[in-house]
Amino acid sequence: MGAKRSEGYTIIEVSLFLGISALLLTVALVGTGVSIRTTRFTDTTRSLHAYVQQQYDDLLNGVNSRFGSEACNAGVIDTGTAQTPGTSNCLFMGKLLVFTKNSSNIVTYNIIGTEPANADYTKPDEQLIFDFTPTIVRSVGVDTYNIPWTATISGSNRPVDNKGVDAFALIRSPRSTRIVSYTYKEPVGTYALAPLINPLTPGDVNNISKPASFCVKSADGLGTPSKITITGGQGQDAIGVSFDTVAGDCNGT
């Protein structure tokens, strides 16, 4: 009778099995990591979109976020004198959102105006808004939104003139529920509103109700930015979100 052949695996077979298993595990871990980062960035973008949309919705629904620590007189806002909301001639008109490039923070300010002595409510909304002297309140009621997972604003563009913008104002008409949007670019720390919302000044009309995109870059190194789009429209279509950015969406000058 011949010698019995022992059962088992050779060292080569075991090595091949371990090597293939390690490779499959590595592929699975890499795929899982990419999936987690993609999901996280999607949630980040949608959270930012929800925040911007909430500012619009609050304004549309008449939510007054004024603190009452401002007094208004002839278009001048005095933050050193308190006047309770509803008992003064301060009119809460809107919000200014500042999207600073390479920053993870969105800063939001209240916009307050005063009714002129002889307001002409037959004027177009844009002119009527200008007549109410909307003014940015910088010292009270300032809100800072931190974009989740340290994503940042990577750029912006207003296609009508290929301009990079960093300020987005929403102002409600004093006579209706219509909200007029303004996008513009200002020197750091200025954000002067009045001259940029004047519908009668040539050149400023590009600021009024024109589409613009603010692009968001993942902190995890994902290649394609997402974007928040200001459409210039009304209602739910006024603020858009997209993950299909193309060349030119983020590189306004």
Structure write-up:
- The chain is an alpha+beta fold.
- It has one domain (13-64, 91-242).
- 23% of the residues lie in helices and 26% in strands.
- It contains 2 helices and 12 strands, in the order H-E-E-E-E-H-E-E-E-E-E-E-E-E.
- The protein has helices spanning 11-60, 125-131, and strands at 71-73, 76-78, 90-99, 105-114, 135-137, 143-146, 152-157, 167-172, 179-184, 212-217, 226-230, 239-242.
- The strands form 3 sheets. Strands 3, 4, 5, 6, 8 and 9 form a 6-stranded antiparallel β-sheet that branches.
What does the secondary structure layout of this molecule look like, with pairings?
Blueprint: H1 11-60, E1 71-73, E2 76-78, E3 90-99, E4 105-114, H2 125-131, E5 135-137, E6 143-146, E7 152-157, E8 167-172, E9 179-184, E10 212-217, E11 226-230, E12 239-242
Antiparallel strand pairs: 1-2, 3-4, 3-8, 4-5, 4-6, 7-10, 8-9, 10-11, 11-12
